[in-house]
Design brief:
The protein is α+β, with helices and mostly antiparallel strands. The protein contains six helices and five strands. It has a five-stranded mixed beta sheet, with helices on one face. A hairpin with a 5-residue loop joins strand 1 and strand 2. The N and C termini lie far apart (about 85 Å).
Length: about 200
């Protein structure tokens, strides 16, 4: 008997957070959108709410009428007209990624491939090839080709730079001209040994 009193006492001391609406009847009937597959109340948060509204207006005009009356935009007092739906939607909807990024125009760099030998440790070197992207050569493809051709490690390290493990400055000029004929002899420059 003591346990029942204690259980009932502990239940009474906890406040109840649930609120029930007397006008709701369970189970609830929820209308799902045929476009975004969410409940129709959440369609406005989807990427294309205009399509959802069109679908709702076409298939359930009575529900659409009640929703548009409830969420009708406030009319501008100066003109007496409501703003067009597209403008209102554009203001409300945030673009993805925050503020827009301005695309910079590609700088027209001179088409020149530079080859340099960089010392690593003791008598080891790496070969740096820069400027391949100015000839519209895919750097990842070139990196794979150099790694296979010279049987060594190669990687794309910067925007327009390929590092090849080993000293291949003599061979690489011929290999580049053989594989990519658009790179002529005048556009390849050998810088020799350069510090990093």
């Amino acid at each position: 008997m003591a346990t029942t009193e204690m259980e009932s006492g502990s239940l009474e001391s906890k406040p109840e957070h649930r609120t029930y609406h007397s006008d709701s009847k369970y189970p609830l009937k929820v209308l799902y959108c045929g476009v975004c597959s969410l409940p129709t109340e959440y369609c406005e948060y989807m990427p294309e709410p205009a399509k959802c509204r069109h679908w709702l207006e076409k298939n359930f005009p009575d529900v659409f009428a009640t929703m548009t009356v409830a969420s009708a935009p406030k009319q501008d007092l100066s003109t007496g007209e409501a703003p067009p739906a597209g403008e209102e939607e554009e203001k409300k909807k945030q673009k993805r990624g925050g503020r827009g990024q301005i695309k910079q125009k590609k700088k027209t760099l001179p088409q020149k491939v530079t080859i340099a030998k960089i010392p690593r440790a003791k008598k080891k070197y790496v070969t740096r090839v820069c400027g391949m992207a100015t000839f519209d050569i895919e750097l990842k493809e070139a990196q794979r080709f150099f790694a296979q051709k010279f049987s060594c490690g190669a990687s794309v390290t910067a925007e327009d730079e390929i590092i090849i493990q080993g000293d291949f400055t003599d061979d690489i000029i011929d290999v580049i001209q053989e594989k990519w004929p658009e790179v002529d002899d005048e556009s390849i420059e050998d810088l020799g040994e350069v510090k990093k």
